[in-house]
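Lab meeting notes turned into a lecture example. A postdoc, R.K., suggested we walk through two folding results consecutively so the class can see how the record format repeats. The first protein's sequence and structure tokens come next.
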Amino acid sequence: MRSASKTAARKSGRSAPKGGRTETEIKLRVGDRRALLGQLAGLKAKLIAPRVHEMNTLYDTEDGKLARQAQMLRLRVEHTTRGAAGAGKRSKDDGISALLTFKGPGTFLRKGLNKSSKGGSKKGSKRTPRPAPAERYKVREEHELRIADHEEMARILEGLGLRPWFRYEKFRTTYGLPGIAHLKVELDETPVGLFLEIEGERGMIDRAAELLGFARSDYIDGSYGALFMEQLGLARKAAPQNEPTPFSGLPDMVFRKSRRSRGRS
């Protein structure tokens, strides 16, 4: 007998959307900003999008249905930092854009049982080889839509019964690497540290990470919310896939006002 949930998923097509867009990405923690910028310059990285300030707001139902299904609905408001926008006449809305994003449940790929690392079994030995560290990628269904009026979009979402439950803030600068097409290297300044987020095909991600001096064991597949939750010691209250829910007791992940003002100036 088929379960009701599986039957509903088949009818809705949520489990495997036909023609749906997926994203594959990793995060990397950056210890030395100056060294990283030097590496990007040495690789002749191209600036794709100048530094922007982001305020991201996650929405869910009152009972946290989206989070329980490992889905995410996010409204992102982007402000171009001063000096990054082009010259010319400005309207009051210049430098502000918004993006509505839906993400489906993530598939957390592990490519860890590869050839054994040094110290494995020798010929004639009965010792079991040690597997190399796992490579971790996050793969999710993703749909995005540019929004002309983020305040009106927020009213629509709340009118539909959704409520904002978590905000996280960051500054993002986006680069591309020569010779690696369709790859984004995003430098994220967040309240929990400095990170690179690399999005593209797995082989491209591996190549970019290696060029930038990272090992595959450095890959992080969690969200910024999950990293913030871990930092606050709230990991045990996580939803499936170790992601926060509206009931995780998670405060907003935002900068102090002074840092925000300096970053936007």
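The second example is placed directly after the first for contrast:
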Amino acid sequence: MNWDRIEGNWKQLKGKIKEQWGDLTDDDIDRIGGKKDQLAGRLQETYGIGKDEAERQIDRWAGSYNENDLRDNDLRASDTRRSSM
């Protein structure tokens, strides 16, 4: 998936990020704010891995999502908003 899409939907993907990298805190994820380089840096610090490995993990994770995943998240969010009205 295009990283711009991930960055734009960062908050919606927060749960998926926590599934992938469970040692990242909510504060970490909020501070990263969808910035790929900041995510790589945090992964390096948290997991003691090198820059290349962090970027590989991010690219593999990002590649596992497609537009339908975000669309499904958007639909669930709008259904939740409608049902609470």
